[in-house]
Amino acid sequence: MHKLNSVGILGTGAYVPEKVLTNQDLEKMVDTTDEWIVTRTGIRERRISGADEASSDLAFHASQRALEKAGIAPEDLDLIVIATVTPDMTFPSTANILQDKLGAKKAAAFDLAAACSGFLYGIATASQFIQNGLYRYALVIGVECLSKIVDWKDRNTCVLFGDGAGAAVLGPVEEGYGFLSFDLGSDGKGGELLKLPAGGSRLPATVDTIASGLHYISMSGGDVFKFAVRAMGNSAEAALEKAGMTKKDIDFMVPHQANIRIIDAAVKRLGLPKEKVIVNIDRYGNMSAASIPVALDEAVNKGSIRYGDNLVLVGFGGGLTWGATVLKWSLKEKE
Ligand code: ACO
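# acetyl coenzyme *A complex -> structure
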């Protein structure tokens, strides 16, 4: 068997729409309060895409930033993977639309749907191609325009979500660095807990499905909450074990940002000190597949994450799905 390449992140980038929707704005739209939202979720504001902004537009800006950081030209990309549950349209894939916008002529491109775990599924998938030598550079993006599939009259869901995009350029790195392990899992039995019922082949879009609000996110919040705490803890532990590490080896954890109480409970279960956990939910809400890469990009830009640090990225989402990776950061700080 030939030797496998070590694969890591060569550059990250993020983009969120300009429009900020605060809890105070939501107080005027539904029967809620800033106090309820902050204490129950930790969210203070979120970003909302414009009427003429779609996922590929957000992805484009995030990708440009990641490519620039990585020093890779779009023409050098071999693969583009977009993780999203809010594609521009059913087909062509949002990855194909982005490929054209970027001018990434030689890249294979496809979308992948694993809800909030999508970015982790995306990097696990794309990294295999580089590890085995088939491809050299891949662009993985988590992007969502959840504001377009949320019922703005439903206080149970509309306060939770936001729009954004995070991107990472993947490529070969120094041996022993980059992705050290992946843990992915799913439980289709729990699919009912979190879904968008209509608009697919089961319930195609009709006047009736629209009148019944079946094109909006439907969620059983309490059940998802319980699953999430368990899944985040278990998946992070499984990825650490596969990497031959324990929680003591972790420098930073970048969790999916769905609810600060979920993050706190998972962190407590893992016994991690809070300062090792990257949190930005207060400013963006739950951006599904975009949450982890946006949080990662912010931490990298702040200079928190340094060469040689061990990171755990961990998430959960509709499907149900979950995933985690242990990553030894391979980028050296610029002098
Ligand atoms: N403002 C005020 N009251 C509210 C609001 C609101 N925005 N939303 C719900 N309430 C009310 C409910 O109606 C309920 O009232 P009732 O007791 O009179 O019926 C009360 O608050 C308590 O509701 P709970 O559901 O018990 O509240 P909980 O503490 O569980 O928090 C939440 C709800 C925030 C949804 C939580 O369960 C959660 O975060 N769940 C996980 C969600 C998640 O991670 N989703 C991932 C989706 S991502 C994807 O894959 C697209």
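# post-check
The CA atoms of residues 87 and 94 lie 6 Å apart.
The radius of gyration is 19 Å.
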